[in-house]
Each structure stands twice: as structure tokens, then as C-alpha cells.
Amino acid sequence: MKLSMFKSLSLGLLTTTLMTFSVTHAATQQNENIEVTPTQKITQQELAAIYVLSEVCPSLIKENDQFKKGYAKLAQEYLPQEQDPVNALQKLSKQKSFKSILAEAKSDAKKAGDVKNKEICQELTTYSN
């Protein structure tokens, strides 16, 4: 529950285009019942929002080591296939094709303001526990 709420809060505050879901509709032939199955897909916007936390948080909180642990855990959950997800996000942030998405995430973080961003960063300090 905490994980779900945290992800929604932190990423929702950073960008409005996060948390997109693809929905599959399957209609049966006889009775027209529709089954809806949500499948979560990680978006570039979500990855940009996560990366922005690494830039915003160190200046807003004192518990930098705890933040790094929480950030690493969050990155690992979103990029489980990566051996070093924090490094993978850093590399992604330097790619030309990712620049506009990253700029949008930075803009959203700036709009959210220091108070909201600090709340998110503070949550990450306890995320690894």
C-alpha cells in the first residue's frame, strides 16, 4: 500500500502524463461481455520524473545517504532488467531523444515547487526501509 501510494504521489506531482496504462478489451462472441485488463507499462515520462528526483532532492533534504538508497530502490523497481538502474537513468538523461521529455519533467518539478518536491524527496529517504 505504501509503495503504491508513494509512487502515485511522487510521480503524479512531477508530471501529469505519468502513470499511463494500456487497456485491453476482449469481447466474447456470445454475450458481449467486456473484460478489461490493465497492463502497466513504464513510460519515458515516468523515467524522466524519476531521474529529475536525483537532481532536485539533494539540495532539498539532509538525509542524502538515505535518499540515495530510496532512489536506487525506486529506480530498480522501474528498471528491473538493468544491472545498475541509477546509471541507466543517467545514461538515458544524456540521450538526444530523451531531452524533450526530460525538459518537461524538469518543468513539472519546478511548477510543483520546493514544498511538494521536498515531501517527495523526504518520502524517498524512508523508501528503502
TrEMBL record:
<feature type="domain" description="DUF7944">
    <location>
        <begin position="43"/>
        <end position="124"/>
    </location>
</feature>
<feature type="signal peptide">
    <location>
        <begin position="1"/>
        <end position="26"/>
    </location>
</feature>
<keyword id="KW-0732">Signal</keyword>
<dbReference type="Pfam" id="PF25642">
    <property type="entry name" value="DUF7944"/>
</dbReference>
<dbReference type="InterPro" id="IPR057704">
    <property type="entry name" value="DUF7944"/>
</dbReference>
<protein>
    <recommendedName>
        <fullName>DUF7944 domain-containing protein</fullName>
    </recommendedName>
</protein>
